[in-house]
């Protein structure tokens, strides 16, 4: 999904050309281009103001769709500077010095067509508000965010990607109330925060959940009951032991990629037929019994590999206490395996 989002974004940007605008708009856009920025004649919808050591946002031309302001010294998100950019779709403010107080009231809400907002590596301690309801991607990683105000995502049913990794979020911040309104969420990244329990309140649309580098010790028995589309789950670098994983917790027909590296497991957890990639490296596993972990009785499998059987293709077990050779029953069960790392 992440790859799909990247590819679709590149296609969207590459489609921008002067042919999309009347000549008089192109001329007006180029004439209004701030002296601190670069406005390509071939792509007049795009304005590059990145890496210019800017301390304030210059007045941006009205026909701008894509605005790049990353890697500057900006500390205020000015409503005045963006007042005329009613067509803005993409705003990149990564690597600046914007604080909560620096986000002027109404500066973001007025951008009613904004789809992508990037404010990574700033000085925010909370989610900026109000946000435009049009947003599809919100990237706020590596700030100092410790709270999510209740209702901040109200009405944001278009938001598909929420990236909050590398902040200071605790369990009390990520709740059903704080995430209310994200009815279309697909990918959520809460890695490198201060979580001790699995986050609550995720919508049923969630497909990708990244929780690496937290302090999670267990997964509640019914946790995935209301997450029927879960396909990519990452819990690397946590504190999960065998007792923290209910027996059939990963029995999810939609799951494709499961990552549990750098935990405290001594056994391979059970997983369903659908799983294709399993990362269990750097745990405390001593042996792997193919008969026990096979999703179906080995005797019921056909002689040839096929899609009706287990679909595991990649298995990583290095950094454990397992010694080769691999047991033959593992090979018999997982006949689509292309790589086993020990």
UniProtKB/TrEMBL annotation:
<keyword id="KW-0325">Glycoprotein</keyword>
<keyword id="KW-0964">Secreted</keyword>
<keyword id="KW-1015">Disulfide bond</keyword>
<comment type="similarity">
    <text>Belongs to the small leucine-rich proteoglycan (SLRP) family. SLRP class II subfamily.</text>
</comment>
<dbReference type="InterPro" id="IPR050333">
    <property type="entry name" value="SLRP"/>
</dbReference>
<protein>
    <recommendedName>
        <fullName>Keratocan</fullName>
    </recommendedName>
</protein>
<dbReference type="Pfam" id="PF13855">
    <property type="entry name" value="LRR_8"/>
</dbReference>
<keyword id="KW-0677">Repeat</keyword>
<feature type="signal peptide">
    <location>
        <begin position="1"/>
        <end position="18"/>
    </location>
</feature>
<dbReference type="InterPro" id="IPR000372">
    <property type="entry name" value="LRRNT"/>
</dbReference>
<keyword id="KW-0433">Leucine-rich repeat</keyword>
<dbReference type="InterPro" id="IPR001611">
    <property type="entry name" value="Leu-rich_rpt"/>
</dbReference>
<dbReference type="InterPro" id="IPR032675">
    <property type="entry name" value="LRR_dom_sf"/>
</dbReference>
<keyword id="KW-0272">Extracellular matrix</keyword>
<keyword id="KW-0732">Signal</keyword>
<feature type="domain" description="LRRNT">
    <location>
        <begin position="32"/>
        <end position="66"/>
    </location>
</feature>
<dbReference type="GO" id="GO:0005615">
    <property type="term" value="C:extracellular space"/>
</dbReference>
<dbReference type="Pfam" id="PF01462">
    <property type="entry name" value="LRRNT"/>
</dbReference>
<dbReference type="InterPro" id="IPR003591">
    <property type="entry name" value="Leu-rich_rpt_typical-subtyp"/>
</dbReference>
């Amino acid at each position: 999904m992440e790859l799909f989002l990247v590819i679709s974004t590149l296609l969207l940007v590459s489609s921008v050309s002067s042919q999309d605008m009347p000549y008089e708009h192109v001329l007006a856009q180029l004439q209004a281009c701030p002296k601190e920025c670069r406005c390509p004649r071939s792509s007049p919808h795009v304005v590059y103001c990145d890496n210019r050591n800017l301390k304030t946002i210059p007045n941006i031309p009205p026909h701008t769709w894509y605005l790049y302001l990353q890697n500057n010294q900006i500390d205020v998100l000015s409503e005045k500077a963006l007042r005329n950019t009613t067509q803005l779709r993409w705003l990149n403010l990564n690597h600046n010095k914007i604080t909560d107080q620096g986000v002027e009231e109404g500066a973001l809400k007025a951008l009613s067509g904004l789809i992508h907002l990037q404010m990574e590596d700033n000085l925010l301690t909370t989610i900026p508000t109000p946000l435009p309801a049009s947003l599809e991607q919100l990237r706020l990683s590596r700030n100092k965010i410790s709270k999510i105000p209740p209702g901040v995502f109200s009405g944001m049913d278009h938001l598909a990607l929420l990236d909050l990794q590398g902040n200071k979020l605790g369990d009390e911040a990520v709740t059903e109330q704080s995430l209310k309104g994200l009815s279309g969420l697909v990918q959520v990244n809460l890695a490198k925060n201060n979580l001790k329990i699995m986050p609550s309140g995720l919508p049923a649309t969630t497909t990708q959940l990244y929780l690496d580098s937290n302090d999670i010790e267990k997964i509640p028995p019914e946790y995935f009951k209301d997450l029927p589309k879960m396909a990519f789950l990452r819990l690397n670098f946590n504190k999960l032991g065998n007792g923290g994983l209910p027996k059939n917790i990963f029995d999810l027909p939609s799951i494709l990629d499961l990552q549990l590296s750098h935990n405290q497991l001594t056994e391979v957890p059970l997983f369903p037929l659908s799983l294709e990639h399993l990362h269990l490296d750097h745990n405390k596993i001593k042996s792997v019994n193919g008969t026990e972990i096979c999703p179906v009785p080995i005797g019921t499998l056909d002689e040839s590999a096929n899609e009706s059987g287990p679909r595991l293709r990649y298995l990583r077990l290095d950094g454990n206490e397992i010694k080769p050779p691999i047991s033959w029953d593992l090979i018999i069960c997982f006949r689509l395996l292309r790589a086993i790392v020990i």
